[in-house]
Amino acid sequence: LLVVSGEKLIAYSQMLREEKVFDDGVLAELSERLPGVRYIMFSLIESDEQDRQSETRPEYEDGKLEEEYHTETVSRTVAVHTTIYDLNEHKIAWEANTRSRLSRSHTYEEHVDDSIGEQLLGSIMLGGSPAMPSDSEMVKDVHEMISEKLPKPCAQTGSLIECGEVKKKLRREWKEARLR
């Protein structure tokens, strides 16, 4: 397993974004560290936004406020640029921009006659504020989306018609990529 992180990952990703190829030094290093590997994937988070929102919804009975429902929602959105590089052909095999958004909510009720906030305290003890989606949850979601976007071999499509459509789409994408 080769883990590339920090400054080296950023440098590799920027090189691919700007020049569309790796220089000979990087290719030699990757080939040495990854013998027999043809494709390598780089994903770079381009933005990471976090948001918290609260909402209170009152409930009335006979025109009198009886209780309030409080909902807190947290959400996180990341934009990721992914590049798959072909080490044998020395070129980008596939690129994609992916955006992932994960959210969580927690709702509790508060009775108007609950002067010491026992229900609020109970709600906090049972669940409290929802946790922001973690880095690992975001990465997992992004990788699942990327794997759905990758071309599938004909055997995985399940039908000859779909296989033909996939091949046509791939030919079109490769032609467009070569023209860039």
Explain what this protein looks like in three dimensions.
- The protein has 180 residues and is an alpha+beta fold.
- It is 40% helix and 37% strand.
- The protein has a 3-stranded antiparallel β-sheet.
- Strand 1 and strand 2 form a beta hairpin.
- The longest helix is centred in the last third of the chain and has 20 residues.
- The radius of gyration is 25 Å and the shape is elongated.
- The relative contact order is 0.12.
- The model has no long low-confidence stretch (mean pLDDT 78).
Write the layout of secondary structure elements.
Elements: H1 6-19, H2 24-33, E1 39-61, E2 64-86, E3 91-111, H3 118-126, H4 135-149, H5 154-157, H6 160-179
Antiparallel strand pairs: 1-2, 2-3
Report on the biggest sheet.
3 strands, antiparallel
Fraction in beta strands: 35-45%
Strand adjacency order, main sheet: 1-2-3
Indicate the percent of residues in helices: 40-55%
Radius of gyration: 25 Å
Structural class: alpha+beta
Number of helices: 6
Helix/strand order, N-terminal first: HHEEEHHHH
Low-confidence runs = none
Strand tally is 3
- Whole-number average pLDDT? 78
Instruction: Give the overall silhouette.
Output: elongated
- Measured between the Cα atoms of the first and last residue, the distance is 32 Å
